[in-house]
Design brief:
mainly alpha, 2 domains, 10 helices
């Protein structure tokens, strides 16, 4: 709690006010009562500073990145038990999700996108992989459909990750298309 206050806008603005009080003393504007002026200006700065924004939903981007990296490393360690190409597919999905998680402020601005990313990282991807890997290796190897199901699930998850990325980067795509139209129209 105390550490949070030290970095708050209220404390920073209060410190600026206190510093103004010290400058007033050094320049000779205030006399022997300068400590009271410093405290008063600190309090004034802290009182006029805007309140911190309320964040009811915590930023989980760091936790999600950590969960994703743990999942990818565990899948890599189980690569010999998985059908061919599934580890590569997990890597491609993880790469897309890493890109989305690299901009947590933008992701938090769209709750639907954030929910889709959280669902992919915390539920869908782990559930598909855990279900397959929790089968005994000899059973999964004998049952051809088990590997095909995992490949199909990972394909669907990769397609969903691409759809989420399309929505995430939609403004850049629109901006690029607008610039192309501008360049074509300018050339006329």
């Amino acid at each position: 709690m105390m550490l949070r206050y030290l970095g708050s806008t209220k404390n920073l603005l209060g410190c600026v006010g206190g510093l103004v009080g010290v400058v007033l003393y050094v320049t000779g504007v205030v006399g022997w009562f300068w400590p009271f002026v410093v405290v008063a200006l600190y309090l004034a700065g802290a009182l006029v500073a805007p309140a911190e924004k309320v964040r009811l939903v915590p930023d989980t981007s760091a936790e999600l990145r950590s969960s994703l990296e743990t999942l990818v490393s565990r899948v890599s360690s189980q690569a010999s038990r998985m059908p061919a190409s599934t580890v590569d597919t997990v890597g491609r999905v993880a790469s897309i999700l890493r890109d989305l998680l690299s901009d947590p402020v933008r992701l938090a601005a769209d709750p639907d996108l954030q929910h889709a990313v959280v669902r992919l990282v915390r539920t869908d991807l782990p559930l598909s992989l855990e279900t397959y890997l929790n089968m005994p290796w000899w059973f999964a190897a004998r049952r051809a459909g088990a590997g095909e199901e995992l490949v199909a699930q990972l394909g669907l998850l990769e397609a969903e990750a691409h759809r989420v990325a399309e929505r995430f980067y939609a403004s850049e795509v629109d901006r690029q298309a607008d610039h192309t139209r501008y360049l074509r129209d300018r050339d006329v």
